[in-house]
Write a structure and sequence with these properties.
single chain, about 240 residues, alpha+beta, five-stranded mixed sheet, about 30% strand
């Protein structure tokens, strides 16, 4: 099968992370995955959620927000703030980002602080939630390194890296890292979130008017692992060493 952008079935889209993309956040990364681009930024608040105080929960917290700019797709969308509420899709994705990051962080090593992670999609061509998770982890690691360097943290709370990639079956063939056209045509679509230690955080797999068997699932997971290795390597490339 010839893919729309000429890639092999097991090939990621062109990938690059630009560190310190913004001036003011403690850590920021522009995550570029093909034509999908997401700005991921981490800011620090010297407070924790009220529920943590009420329940006397030690440590700190990590929370995430996700949004797409109105011009991120070929048809302008209305800003969600204009509608007065977050869309169900955005709410689901930002919860996924938060869960994914908290899975690889020791929250008890955050001394009463909240790390706010913002993921803003400036161009969308499929896989925005995966790019957000992967870029957010890279930005979080840079932020944590700076907090250790300035003495705010005694040690990094990050236990492992986390990344995410999409896989799917298109015209009967398993493919890695779907662009929008492939995602729209996929018989099976799956997002795989995994740690650098080989542990799954979340699998989101759906048959789109189709079903899939054990062998196809194994093939998709094998493709995902190949792609994740490349994502972890890009995270490592821009990691701060302190």
């Amino acid at each position: 099968m010839s893919r729309i952008d000429g890639r092999q079935a097991n090939e990621l889209r062109p990938l690059s992370f630009v560190p310190d993309y913004q001036l003011h956040p403690l850590g920021s990364v522009l995550a570029v995955c093909g034509r999908t681009r997401v700005v991921c930024a981490v800011s620090v608040e010297n407070a924790v959620p009220s529920w943590m105080k009420a329940q006397d929960v030690p440590g700190g917290w990590i929370t995430a927000e996700y949004q797409m700019l109105p011009s991120a797709t070929n048809t302008r969308s209305t800003r969600e703030v204009t509608k007065g509420k977050l869309s169900g899709r955005s709410a689901e994705i930002q919860r996924l980002i938060g869960r994914s990051l908290r899975a690889v962080v020791d929250l008890q090593k955050l001394p009463g602080i909240t790390l706010h992670v913002d993921c803003d999609v400036i161009d969308a061509d499929g896989g925005t939630r995966c790019a957000s998770i992967t870029g957010a982890c890279a930005a979080l690691e840079r932020a944590a390194a700076k907090l250790v360097a300035d003495g705010t943290l005694a040690e990094s709370p990050i236990k492992a890296r986390v990344a995410a990639v999409s896989v799917g079956i298109v015209n009967g063939e398993p493919l890695l890292d779907l662009c929008y056209e492939e995602d729209s045509a996929a018989e099976v679509d799956m997002n795989v979130v995994m740690t650098s230690t080989g542990r799954f955080v979340e699998l989101q797999g759906t048959g789109e008017e189709a079903t899939f068997d054990d062998a196809q699932l194994a093939s998709l997971l094998s493709l995902a692992r190949q792609g994740l290795a490349g994502l972890f390597a890009e995270q490592e490339r821009i990691a701060l060493k302190v």
